[in-house]
């Protein structure tokens, strides 16, 4: 633990100075931390998902040998500064870390943070060691900006404000645009704006906040498409007692209905499609700010008053249960709105004398004053798990002190997007320390995520982290002074500290691991209260749990933020390109911790590699299944399990938690109501839900939904049986010689061949597939499938019918392909019929199915008409000129492929990511990170850093 010094003699007989005495954690005196690392050179080459061309290339970059290929690629492409190919371009992780840490250390020295030059050197070395070893990471803006010629923006989270004047509304548009331009996101509460049921001073009727949301949404979409590679991230909040609350609740659900209608009419409504821009309100997350009064009315039943914005008088009464039901129904339909529990948030507010907390950042983890910002940093928890599976409490305490010190220093030199945000942040110095890899830590130590033991470990770690953070903040206040707004908020701030300490006292431990962490947390809170009483606090806020999207990948974390493991099998990028699928490395460690022998571990891991889950794994006891439960898959964690984990940590956090509670597609509106109620009862500050596949994904066929509705209507109106004579189909046999084309493909690492033969005049008539050695089960199945499809085609079954049945079918193998037109496939069948559609269907029919070639997607991006392309015609012409093959043509014997081990892919078990967005940078399907999405291919996020 570090200490404060107020009169010690500095090295070399210099004048005594007040400052922090730093102690070493990981480094050795006289040895630079870089000298203890084995460094290696690598090449980073990124290809364009649309056409396979190279869109980034930097060779000879330098990273530690233990950094993964993915982490090195993300840092190189996203965080290295300078034009590629110039001497100014950064090429080593050393340069990046030196650029950032150098500014922190220099600023700390200049502003009296350290007791001596030696302490400054220890700070410098420890920070460099921790960053190079992936022990923690600052949020993305730090890596983008610190030490460059750009403004030194360090914050990722912003909260704005808007008043009931046109000038304020237009200023909101401007401020939001500036923040989006810089690649960050913001949140705002629109409840001060008069409703559409109130009068203006001129005598007219007000437009209401929802109408002004249209302009802000259009602005966000325009700025995003005007050059940014990430979508604009924003949060819009409305209080539950606002007269326009029902319109706000149903806004996005109505737009989702519009998307479906336009899709079924043949419009391109896919992400990035040319017609999706006609749909409104898609650039924001919406949340309703609910009060305890409203939630009690929901529980007991009764009316709830909606109040005029200027006078506060009740102008309308609504049934609370009905209004709550509408919230749950809208969330069931489109995942919006989420809920923010206003009274809970403000009960834990450290600076209420300055103003209430009314809004949050886009992912809901930062909740504090209007016109403020927060810089984030996250700890890699798995780095503190010792070989004996105990948690290194002492090092965790020291690292937390180090991070809080660095984060507070950053506010000294930081720049901000608006003057108002800069003033508030410098006056209140909000910080957001958090962690990642909790799910991996729990699994590795044999704790089920949804268990009393897992929650006890999470709660103890979170309590310790926040207790150390505020204790360090009190120490900093003794060295460089408390935050400017502390004097007027001293009593409420100390009240909240006592609430945290009391929550820590109430924490009930289950095992040895959490008991030791909790004991240290209790000691830290005791010291925190004593120092805070004497010195005050340097920071109005200290901790929260962010989604850790890009920086989680930078740290090679298996799990992000507070999330559990996503799946038991994941992709690993390889040096030189490509990827392989591996069983998560925490699984063997967990099995060892649970007492299994090496032979048993190997058998279980092999089973998981093949099946993707642990059910019926050889030798694995059923009582241990829960340890390996994940966010999705065969044994997905129940929705309330996620809520309980959030509740286990919320009382130990200054802010809130970025996390979405995922529900299966079969979940009902009642289920969502129950989640929202339990979130309030358990003391959460904010909560969002997502029902699997509730949003519009790729269409199966144009007008398919409408046709089904028509059929149902006809059946209902005409129940009597009608006898209809139909002509029996006749088979149109293929000639002995026919034009054909053979395609070699790879799907999720599995290789195969497809030979597609056409009638000489026109039309596909035969398909043969080969994916294994002759005589194998897989070869037999593929032969039988090929015959069935071929006969169907020859009897006149339209190719479009097969498309509607097999496109988007999900099973093993699945994942990345080697086809530039089809970068991802959910199965071999999905790939096969997408390829057949591209080769044999005209553009108009494929567009209705959402199937486009790389050239067509590129044309869409350029704003051109893809229908003008003649790619399909060229392919058919090529097929016509190809050598005539027999119907039985197959690859030669020497080309026969070995049986490919059909390992489970991550994508095949991402149920609710079937409609997740594709990355706008590299085209890979993104995965959840808190309430946002992150691309594991390039590190891009949907709004969270």
Automatic annotation (TrEMBL):
GO terms for molecular function: ribonucleoside-diphosphate reductase activity, thioredoxin disulfide as acceptor. Its EC number is 1.17.4.1. Keywords: Cobalamin, Cobalt, Disulfide bond, DNA synthesis, Nucleotide-binding, Oxidoreductase. Its cofactor is adenosylcob(III)alamin. InterPro entries: RdRp_reductase_class-2, RNR_2_N, RNR_lg_C, RNR_NrdJ/NrdZ, TSCPD_dom. Gene3D superfamilies: 3.20.70.20. Residues 155-690 form the Ribonucleotide reductase large subunit C-terminal domain. Pfam families: Ribonuc_red_2_N, Ribonuc_red_lgC, TSCPD. It comes from the Bacteria. It catalyses: a 2'-deoxyribonucleoside 5'-diphosphate + [thioredoxin]-disulfide + H2O = a ribonucleoside 5'-diphosphate + [thioredoxin]-dithiol. It is an enzyme of class 1 (oxidoreductase). Residues 44-134 form the Ribonucleotide reductase class II vitamin B12-dependent N-terminal domain. Residues 735-838 form the TSCPD domain. The keyword 4Fe-4S does not apply. Catalyzes the reduction of ribonucleotides to deoxyribonucleotides. May function to provide a pool of deoxyribonucleotide precursors for DNA repair during oxygen limitation and/or for immediate growth after restoration of oxygen. Belongs to the ribonucleoside diphosphate reductase class-2 family. This is Vitamin B12-dependent ribonucleotide reductase. It comes from Nonomuraea salmonea.
């Amino acid at each position: 633990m570090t200490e404060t010094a107020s009169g010690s003699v500095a090295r070399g007989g210099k004048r005594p100075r007040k400052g922090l005495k730093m102690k070493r954690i990981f480094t050795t005196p006289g040895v630079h931390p870089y000298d203890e690392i084995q460094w290696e050179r690598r090449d980073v080459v990124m290809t364009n998902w649309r056409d396979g061309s190279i869109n980034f290339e930097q060779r000879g970059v330098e990273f530690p040998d233990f950094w993964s290929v993915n982490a090195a690629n993300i840092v190189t492409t996203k965080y290295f500064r300078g034009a590629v190919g110039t001497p100014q371009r950064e090429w080593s992780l050393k340069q990046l870390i030196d650029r950032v840490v150098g500014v922190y250390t220099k600023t700390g020295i200049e502003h009296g943070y350290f007791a001596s030059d030696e302490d400054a050197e220890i700070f410098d070395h420890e920070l460099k060691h921790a960053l190079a070893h992936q022990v923690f990471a600052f949020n993305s803006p730090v890596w983008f900006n610190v030490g460059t010629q750009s403004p030194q923006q360090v914050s990722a989270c912003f909260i704005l404000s808007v008043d009931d004047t046109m000038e304020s509304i237009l200023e909101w548009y401007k401020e939001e645009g500036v923040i989006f331009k810089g690649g960050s996101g913001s949140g705002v509460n629109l409840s001060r704006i008069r409703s559409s049921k109130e009068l203006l001073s001129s005598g007219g009727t007000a437009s209401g906040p929802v109408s002004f949301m249209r302009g802000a949404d259009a602005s966000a979409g325009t700025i995003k498409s005007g050059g940014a590679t990430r979508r604009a991230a924003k949060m819009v909040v409305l209080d539950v007692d606002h007269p326009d609350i029902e319109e706000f609740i149903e806004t996005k659900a109505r737009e989702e209905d519009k998307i479906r209608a336009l899709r079924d009419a043949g419009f391109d409504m896919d992400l990035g499609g040319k017609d999706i821009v006609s749909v409104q309100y898609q650039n924001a997350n919406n949340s309703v700010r609910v009060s305890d009064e409203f939630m009690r009315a929901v529980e007991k039943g009764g009316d709830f008053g909606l109040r005029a914005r200027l006078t506060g008088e009740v102008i309308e009464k609504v049934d609370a249960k009905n209004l709550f039901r509408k919230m749950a129904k809208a969330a069931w339909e489109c995942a919006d709105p989420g809920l923010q529990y206003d009274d809970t948030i403000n009960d834990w507010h450290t600076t209420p004398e300055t103003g209430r907390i009314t809004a949050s950042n886009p992912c809901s983890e930062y909740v504090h004053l209007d016109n403020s910002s927060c810089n984030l940093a996250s700890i890699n928890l798995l780095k503190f798990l010792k070989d004996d599976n105990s948690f290194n409490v002492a090092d965790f305490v020291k690292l937390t002190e180090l991070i809080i010190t660095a984060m507070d220093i950053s506010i000294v030199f930081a720049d901000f997007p608006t003057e108002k945000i800069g003033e508030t942040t410098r006056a209140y110095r909000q910080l957001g320390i958090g962690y990642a890899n909790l799910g991996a830590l729990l699994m590795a130590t044999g704790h089920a995520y949804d268990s009393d033991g897992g929650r006890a470990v999470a709660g103890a770690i979170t309590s310790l982290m926040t207790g150390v953070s505020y204790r360090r903040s009190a120490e900093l206040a003794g060295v460089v002074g408390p935050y400017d707004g502390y004097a007027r908020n001293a009593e409420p701030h100390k009240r909240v500290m006592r609430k945290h300490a009391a929550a820590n006292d109430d924490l009930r431990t289950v095992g040895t691991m959490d008991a030791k962490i909790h004991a240290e947390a209790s000691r830290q809170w005791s010291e925190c209260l004593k120092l805070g009483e004497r010195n005050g606090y340097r920071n109005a806020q200290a901790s929260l749990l962010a989604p850790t999207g890009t920086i989680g990948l930078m740290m090679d974390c298996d799990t992000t933020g507070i999330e559990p493991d996503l799946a038991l099998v994941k992709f690993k990028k390889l040096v030189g390109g490509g990827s392989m699928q591996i069983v998560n490395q925490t699984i063997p460690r967990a099995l060892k911790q649970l007492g299994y022998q090496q032979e048993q571990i190997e058998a279980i891991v092999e089973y998981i590699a093949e099946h993707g889950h642990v059910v019926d794994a050889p030798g694995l006891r059923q009582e241990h299944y829960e340890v390996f439960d994940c966010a999705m898959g065969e044994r997905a964690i129940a929705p309330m399990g996620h809520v309980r984990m959030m509740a286990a940590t919320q009382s130990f956090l200054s802010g809130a938690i970025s996390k979405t509670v995922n529900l299966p597609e079969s979940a009902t509106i009642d289920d969502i109501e129950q989640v929202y109620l339990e979130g309030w009862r358990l003391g959460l500050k904010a909560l969002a839900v997502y029902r699997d596949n509730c949003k519009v994904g790729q269409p199966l066929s144009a007008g398919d939904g409408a046709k089904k509705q028509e059929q149902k209507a006809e059946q209902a109106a005409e129940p009597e049986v009608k006898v209809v004579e139909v002509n029996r189909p006749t088979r149109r046999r293929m000639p002995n010689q026919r034009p054909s084309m053979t395609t070699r493909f790879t799907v999720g690492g599995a290789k195969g061949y497809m030979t597609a033969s056409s009638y000489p005049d026109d039309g596909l008539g035969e398909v043969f597939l080969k994916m294994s050695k002759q005589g194998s089960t897989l070869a037999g199945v593929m032969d039988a499938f090929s015959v069935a499809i071929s006969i169907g085609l020859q009897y006149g079954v339209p190719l479009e019918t097969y498309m509607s049945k097999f496109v988007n079918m999900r099973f093993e193998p699945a994942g990345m392909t080697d086809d530039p037109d089809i970068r991802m496939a959910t199965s071999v069948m999905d790939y096969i019929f997408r390829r057949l559609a591209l080769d044999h269907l005209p553009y108009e029919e494929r567009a209705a199915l959402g199937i486009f070639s790389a050239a067509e997607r590129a044309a869409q991006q350029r704003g051109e008409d893809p229908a003008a392309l003649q790619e399909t015609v060229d392919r058919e012409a090529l097929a016509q000129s190809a050598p005539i093959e027999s119907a039985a043509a197959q690859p030669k014997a020497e080309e026969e492929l070995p049986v490919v081990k059909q390992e489970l892919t991550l994508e095949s078990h991402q149920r609710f990511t079937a409609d997740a967005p594709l990355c706008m940078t590299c085209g890979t399907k993104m995965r959840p990170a808190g309430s946002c999405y992150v691309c594991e291919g390039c590190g891009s996020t949907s709004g969270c850093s």
